[in-house]
C-alpha cells in the first residue's frame, strides 16, 4: 500500500453553543464565506471557507464553554502572509471585545521572527493567527516551550 505523499489538513470541525453568534464572529474575524448551512432538529451547522475551499465547520450541538483541561483540541491556528495582516485582525478582535491570551503580536519562541496573536472565540476555543516572519524578535511570553504551548 502506498502512503499519501501530499497529506494536508482538510477542514476543522468546531462544536459551538450558538451558531448565529459564532457565524458572526468567524465571518468578521476571518472573512469566511458561508459555503453551506443546514439543520437537523434543533442542531444547526455551517460550512465556512474562502472561494470554494472549506476551512471550518461549525456544529451547534454543545453547551458550556471549551474545556482546556480535557483531551482534545489544544488550539486552532491560521497562517497569513504578513504581520500587518495579523495586526489588522487584532484590531477587528479588539473591536469585538475578544479575550486575548497575550497582549499584541508575540513571537513563537525566544528571538523567533514568526509570531502572532492568541485569542478565544465566543465559546472559549483557543485560536491563533500568525505570520511566518515579521514578529519582533523579542522575549517570548513563555520560556522553555513554544508560545502556543502552555496557556
UniProtKB/TrEMBL annotation:
Residues 8-132 form the VOC domain. The keyword Metal-binding applies. InterPro entries: Fosfomycin_Res_Enzymes, Glyas_Bleomycin-R_OHBP_Dase, Glyas_Fos-R_dOase_dom, VOC_core. GO terms for molecular function: metal ion binding. Keywords: Metal-binding. PANTHER family: FOSFOMYCIN RESISTANCE PROTEIN FOSX, LYASE, PUTATIVE-RELATED-RELATED. This is VOC family protein. It comes from Streptomyces nitrosporeus.
Amino acid at each position: 500500500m502506498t502512503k499519501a505523499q501530499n497529506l494536508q489538513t482538510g477542514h476543522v470541525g468546531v462544536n459551538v453553543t450558538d451558531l448565529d453568534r459564532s457565524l458572526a464572529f468567524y465571518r468578521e474575524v476571518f472573512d469566511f464565506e458561508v459555503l453551506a448551512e443546514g439543520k437537523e432538529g434543533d442542531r444547526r451547522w455551517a460550512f465556512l471557507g474562502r472561494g470554494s475551499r472549506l476551512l471550518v465547520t461549525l456544529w451547534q450541538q454543545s453547551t458550556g464553554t471549551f474545556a482546556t483541561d480535557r483531551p482534545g483540541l489544544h488550539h486552532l491556528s491560521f497562517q497569513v502572509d504578513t504581520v500587518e495582516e495579523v495586526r489588522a485582525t487584532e484590531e477587528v478582535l479588539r473591536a469585538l471585545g475578544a479575550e486575548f491570551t497575550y497582549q499584541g503580536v508575540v513571537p513563537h519562541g525566544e528571538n523567533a521572527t514568526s509570531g502572532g496573536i492568541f485569542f478565544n472565540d465566543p465559546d472559549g476555543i483557543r485560536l491563533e493567527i500568525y505570520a511566518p516572519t515579521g514578529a519582533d524578535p523579542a522575549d517570548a511570553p513563555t520560556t522553555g516551550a513554544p508560545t502556543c504551548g502552555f496557556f
